[in-house]
Amino acid sequence: MNEDIRIHSWPCSYYLDTSKQWVSGRLSLTPVAIKFTADKTGELLVNFRLSSVSEIKKESSNLIFSSLTILEKNTKHWFSSLQPNRNVVFNILEHFWREQLLSSQGAGAEAAALQSTKGKELTGLLSGSQKQLEDTAKVLHYQGEQFDNIMRGLNKIEGDMDVADRLLTELESPSWWPFSSKLWKAPLETKPKETATVSDSKNQEGIIIRIPVIITHRTDSNVKPGKLTLFASGLEISDCNSQVIHRFESKDVDDIRVHTPYEISVRQRFIGKPDTSYRLLSAKMPEAIPILEMQFSKKIQFLEDALGFVGARKSPQVDLGTSIWQAATGLLGGVVQPGSPVGGREGMDNDQVQLQKQEKISQEEAKELKQILKKLKGLALETEAELERQDEALDSITTSVDRATLNIDKQNRRIKKLT
């Protein structure tokens, strides 16, 4: 992710200690740093990393009213006249600062891992692909359950139409027909009544991902911290106490705009009343956007500042498992040679030696990469099989709907004749 991406910026004043005066300018936040640029000179007066911040506070005094202070190492930076207001800036800065602290807890181990950077990079890339494919499998599983429910409903409709057909046949039969009484009972005896199959999927469906977010409702200037939870059937926005603020079912979402890799807006349109719209900002948003892109492929829009994030990830869902698998094998071109068997011990040993010489990947890393690759292959095959099953189910649903339509038209004509 590009560290120079500007997540947000606010007009404000900065207290320049060297000249003992306030300087007007803009406070900017990037994924890893905080900057302040003076308006008049364009000079960058403040530039430090979030990881070096030890405290962010809202302060005021007799001389400085309604200010925000950031303690960076041993230097205290004062910002005032913040727009739209101090609380908004504080909530956003604190959110990204805390997430930066959480993500850098393993900084001590990072230095030791520098000797095998390539192996860690490959492992991270494949682990990300594995996580994305697992999320895809969850969505497909829920979608498959919905198809199964539709098929059960169509089967029940067909059963009911058989009953109606027999009843119409009874009505059309002459009064002297000796077998008329059996026609009324036959459907009830031979066709057991199917119990309601209303899926309790909302209670049973698992959470795909949950991330902390900063929430802005419509055009309100105030923001508040909360959580975004993605389900296979939609998304849910809740506050810090896990109280649901709003839940969007998949069919309710009209558009999702990706403003930056860290900020999105979700909207549901209405006629005659204001739209329901939420703007969500999060340091973890890059993890959620690929899932949103998969679930709402026709409704999601990447704006100019986010176009670099989507890159070449746009691909048909049908080829998702295959494409990830091919990407994984491409990354490990040096681990498993195209001409050698994956399970061959001799080939694997030679490749590991070659990798250690060329890329400095340890035996443990090569083993871990092979295990991830094996899991990826299994997930890709399962995903492909599930997609094929859903294609067949969709064909069956289409056929059943066409057959039911024809039967309904036929019965309508028979009813008109009777009336």
TrEMBL record:
One of the record's GO molecular function terms: SNAP receptor activity
PROSITE patterns: T_SNARE
Family that this chain belongs to: Belongs to the SVAP1 family.
Classification via Gene3D superfamilies: 1.20.5.110, Pleckstrin-homology domain (PH domain)/Phosphotyrosine-binding domain (PTB) (2.30.29.30)
Compartment annotation: Cytoplasm, Perinuclear region; Endomembrane system
A biological-process GO annotation: synaptic vesicle fusion to presynaptic active zone membrane
InterPro entries assigned to the protein according to its UniProt record, in alphabetical order: PH-like_dom_sf, T_SNARE_dom
GO cellular component, one term: endomembrane system
Keywords tagged on the record: Coiled coil, Cytoplasm, Membrane, Repeat
Entry superkingdom: Eukaryota
UniProt-recorded name of the protein: Synaptosomal-associated protein 47
Organism classification: Eukaryota, Metazoa, Chordata, Craniata, Vertebrata
Coiled-coil annotated residue ranges, if any: 355-393
Residues of the T-SNARE coiled-coil homology domain: 356-418
Biological source species: Circaetus pectoralis (black-chested snake-eagle)
